[in-house]
Amino acid sequence: MDLKKKRVTIYDIARALNLTASTVSRSLNNNSRINEETRKQVIAKAREMNYRANSLASNLRKGKSQTIGIVVPRINQSFFSNVIAGIESITNEKNYNLIICQSNESHEKEIKCVNTLINQHVDCIVISVSAEGDDYTHLQNVIDHHIRLIQFDRVVEEIESLKVVNNNEQASREAVEHLIKAGYKRIALLAGPQNLDIFRDRKAGYLKALRANKVPVADELILDADSNNEHDAELIRSLLTLPNPPDAVFASRDDFLALGVLEVANDLGIKVPEQLGICGYSNENFTRITTPSLTTIDQYGVDMGKTIAQTYFELDDKNDETAIEIKTTSIKPKLIARASSQRK
Amino acid sequence: MDLKKKRVTIYDIARALNLTASTVSRSLNNNSRINEETRKQVIAKAREMNYRANSLASNLRKGKSQTIGIVVPRINQSFFSNVIAGIESITNEKNYNLIICQSNESHEKEIKCVNTLINQHVDCIVISVSAEGDDYTHLQNVIDHHIRLIQFDRVVEEIESLKVVNNNEQASREAVEHLIKAGYKRIALLAGPQNLDIFRDRKAGYLKALRANKVPVADELILDADSNNEHDAELIRSLLTLPNPPDAVFASRDDFLALGVLEVANDLGIKVPEQLGICGYSNENFTRITTPSLTTIDQYGVDMGKTIAQTYFELDDKNDETAIEIKTTSIKPKLIARASSQRK
DNA sequence: CTGAAAGCGCTTACAG
DNA sequence: CTGAAAGCGCTTACAG
């Protein structure tokens, strides 16, 4: 006993107007040569009957969905929500839809998201991979199903796709040189999960900065933080209570880790920035409002998002699958020097 | 010249196995009485051929999409991202998909989001309306198209749908009574846009608290803040520089406004909490880390999200459209008293 | 347990 | 400019 009334279809409109579904469809999509009079009638009747197109049907027929799927670790981190906003600003004009999914940093969930998007026949999948995991056949799968793949920020090098990234190595190098210039001598690195390229690059930038400035590299000052905030405090505490502790920390994983450093330092009675300099990564909103405010690196998320969408539409215009250059677009991030890294 | 190879369909699998599409479909959906041997063969072959179901087709055929659409003002505000996380935790188990849209506080964009979701044939739309706007025919439209509508937090009373809300009046009353008990005497209210129920309720709670405690109501201490952060600073400055200024502010719109109060106070050299008490709303992540930390109200976003999803599935189980009670579930929010409201 | 057939709501060559 | 017909990839009553 299904009481649901059925929705109005183009056939209902056609019947009401003594036309065929073909004509109704053409009128609604203001496509080919249609009598202007007919079109107006159809549009009016459609409105009157409160008609809504069935995207499932039209997408199935057309073989494309005008939809872009986005997979990010977390939608509520500034960087990712900025990228999403950037993408949206472009797709809105083009009347494309966005399906946003979050992997919650779980590799398993990420695979699920990607598979769902493949099933939904999205035209493009935009992804920044989760910290876990090392098997990327699900990304290859996207390509194999003829869906455009665009990776950003946390990209998997060996998967051949369009990529939009920051120059992480350079930004990290600048950040560490900034700390050196501020007079810090024992600069620790809290690195992100080293299975991801971006975090390896940041570590490389750190090492280059030290070497270029003849600052000795101390292995005990280099620690890997996983993506799980719960373990941050212990890790930081172990670092700051070393017999010969650091006088600065570059929390290259993200600002949440930098905030953790600030909090543990407060806890231990270590003065920031006098006794300890801190630099984070990502320019999260909160970095501006801590005391002292946190030095960090802005990744230009909105610009990255726009670039991603533009890249997609450029290729879509060409529509020539053989000619895709697997190009990587790099955006230069910017050091935001604030109080946490400036000794009086 | 379309070079796209076509995807594998159930017909391809059927052909490879000398079966019919019917049998393949049944095997893949492990539905009815299918020979276990056949099923195993089909599954194996599907995997071998890298088959992916076409959700567009199956949803079109089934007339439902196992998808829930969510429309929120902003995905990167703690409260909304918590609600989304809560919904996700339930829908994940049930293998439902989520389409997340943000209205960016624009009424026009909200209408566009809702219409897109209607066209996509989602089974349910979960929405918290934007601050702008007073015409809600787009919500009525959802119902008219036999899509389940669930409103939360910022609900429109006159639209008959399921609603999951906080008791805003009570929470606000408690917040203001907390300020009174802390010794503040001239408590200002920065209210949110008064076209929305929740902000009217919060104002009502404020007024009740004052009256119940025989604190005089001063009209010049009650200001409406719109949803646009850009105007906050001026508004706050005008309030704090009154000839007879307030000694506390309840920023009932949200914590961003409370943060603005803290910043303007710092600017003006007004000491918080000694000279000025502050209370915000929503328990944004950053409220914990300001100096002083901000008193606020936790809305239990994750719980609200879970309740929303559970409510949907309960009704879905009944599947009896006539018997829907248009019930409203209310969740009691909780005052989080921190340093910004506690005089030494 | 399996097959043949219809149909979900569209769009689009093909005719006229 | 409009119509008739096929088909997108599935699912599901109806037979057997």
UniProtKB/TrEMBL annotation, chains A, B:
<dbReference type="Pfam" id="PF00356">
    <property type="entry name" value="LacI"/>
</dbReference>
<protein>
    <submittedName>
        <fullName>LacI family DNA-binding transcriptional regulator</fullName>
    </submittedName>
</protein>
<dbReference type="InterPro" id="IPR046335">
    <property type="entry name" value="LacI/GalR-like_sensor"/>
</dbReference>
<keyword id="KW-0805">Transcription regulation</keyword>
<keyword id="KW-0804">Transcription</keyword>
<dbReference type="InterPro" id="IPR028082">
    <property type="entry name" value="Peripla_BP_I"/>
</dbReference>
<keyword id="KW-0238">DNA-binding</keyword>
<dbReference type="GO" id="GO:0003677">
    <property type="term" value="F:DNA binding"/>
</dbReference>
<dbReference type="Pfam" id="PF13377">
    <property type="entry name" value="Peripla_BP_3"/>
</dbReference>
<dbReference type="InterPro" id="IPR000843">
    <property type="entry name" value="HTH_LacI"/>
</dbReference>
<dbReference type="InterPro" id="IPR010982">
    <property type="entry name" value="Lambda_DNA-bd_dom_sf"/>
</dbReference>
<feature type="domain" description="HTH lacI-type">
    <location>
        <begin position="8"/>
        <end position="62"/>
    </location>
</feature>
